[in-house]
Amino acid sequence: MTSLPTDRLCSSDFTEGGFRPHGEFSCWMDGDLLVWESRGPFNVEALQAFSRTRQAAFARWQLDDRPLAAVMHWVGSALMSPEAFALYEQAFEAFIVSRHNYVAVAWVGGPDVEGLDFMRSRFAPVFERHGLAFAVFTDMDSARRWARPRLTEAQQAALPP
Questions:
Q1: 33 found inside a domain
Q2: What global pTM score does this model have?
Q3: Contact 105, 68 (CB under 8 A)
Q4: How many domains are contained in the chain?
Q5: What is the CA angle 106-109-115, rounded to 5?
Q6: CA-CA distance, 52 to 47, in Å (whole number)?
Q7: What is the CATH number of the domain that holds 125?
Q8: Which of 28, 87, 150, 155 could disulfide-link to 5, CB 3.0 to 4.6 Å?
Q9: 4 part of a folded domain
C-alpha cells in the first residue's frame, strides 16, 4: 500500500448527488509530479468526483498553464463502466484542450490490478490524440524516473529565451 501524504485531495471529498461513487482517487504533489492513487473499479459518480478533484488539485497547487506530468498508481482494479469511461474521455478532452499542459502520463500497476491491460488499450488513444507520452510500469520509482525527464524537458522549453 502506498503511504499517502497529509497534503492530498481525495475524491470522496468531492462527491455530489444521490448515488454513491464506486472507486476513489487521491492525489498529491511529489515535487513537480502530480501523483494519483486510484482504487477501482469505478462508476460514473466516481469519475464525476475525479473531475472535481482534478480541478481542485489544479487550483490548490497552481498547476494551470505550466507543464505537468502525472503518475497514476492503480490499486485493486482499473476497470470502469463504459459510461464512466465515456465521461472520462469527454471531460479529459475538454480539460486538456482548455488550458492544461500535460506532457506525460505514467501508470503504475502490477498483474494484480484487474483490467489494467484492457484499460490501457482504451486510454492510450486518448492520450495519443493530445501528444502525451504514456507508459505503464510495475513500480512507482520506475514511473517517476520515466516521467521526470519528460517534465524537465517541457519545463525548459517553456522558459522564455
A1: yes
A2: 0.90
A3: no
A4: 1
A5: 105
A6: 9
A7: 3.40.50.10600
A8: 28
A9: no
In a domain, 3, yes or no: no
Domain of residue 77: give its range: 20-158
At 2-61, the pLDDT tens digits run 455 678 888 777 777 777 788 999 999 999 999 999 999 999 999 999 989 999 999 999
**In-domain check, residue 112:** yes
Please name the helix (run of DSSP H) or strand (run of DSSP E) that holds residue 98, with its range, or none: helix 82-98
Question: Grid coordinates representing 61?
Answer: 497547487
